[in-house]
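Q: How would the structure tokens look for this protein?
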Amino acid sequence: MQINIVQFLPFLAFLLFFNGVNIYAGNLPDETDKKKVVFQEVNSPPLPDKLFFAGEEVPLWNFDIRENLDRELMVNCYFHSQTLRYIKLAPRYFEIIEPILKNDTVPDDFKYLALAESGFDPKAISPAGAAGIWQLMKPAAKEYGLEINDEVDERYHIEKASQAACKYLKESYARYGDWTTVAASYNAGRNGIDRQVERQKESHYYNLLLSEETMRYVFRILALKTILEDPEKYGFIVSNHEKYPSIPYEIVKVDSSVTSFADFANSFDTNYKLLKMLNPWLREAELKNSQGKTYEIKIPKGKFRKGLP
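A: Here is the predicted structure in token form.
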């Protein structure tokens, strides 16, 4: 019997198609064979059972307070590079700020406010013109005794700016009677807090409805305090040798003009860059000092650039 190939072709095509579908379907993974693919594991940062700011307990038993703290913990825990940098820089700047807070009887926790303000950048300046570690505005800085002119801006002088900030904080405490509201007033201003106290007939930060920025401000400070006090709990493993050390220096008093800070630095066996790093409050390459004031200028000493004291 002879087979007509032309007549057989449609049937052959059907068989091939049918078997192909079965073969393909047989290669599909069964539901039981599917594996759960996890790109990365992301955990919610643990909330502390209790938390205090400047000796005042944070009311974590209130749901809104817990959620606000949770938000800032998530932001700072998962901004890894920034938070790591804060942990590394903390010893350098806390060593300067802590004794000043203690001497002026301001709670130690306010060092975290300085961190929240500037991110430990002594040269920080905001779009509004606030400057330095404590982000002081010109009028407030001058009111608290800081010198600001074309050549000198003591808002960038960490020690003097810290002392000025302490004056502001203590005055605010005399007005509000609690340090948490004092911290909020540093962001919103006393007038801003006073307006909301009068409008809402509430006097404490945790009971006030404030601007988004100020509502988050204190909780950011609390989150930074929580993480920096126990970084390993939040996944930040930084050994002591990885942290940035303080820079050793000696003080040179200057009561006359300086025609060139580059030459001045060279005369003390250092350079212009390092001189300005230690003295960011010196704003120009020279100092006319027409009034003959006495300035204390930090001069780096030792071989600290090689990691040696």
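The radius of gyration is 31 Å.

Residues 52-242 form a domain with the Lysozyme fold (CATH 1.10.530.10).

Upvote if useful.
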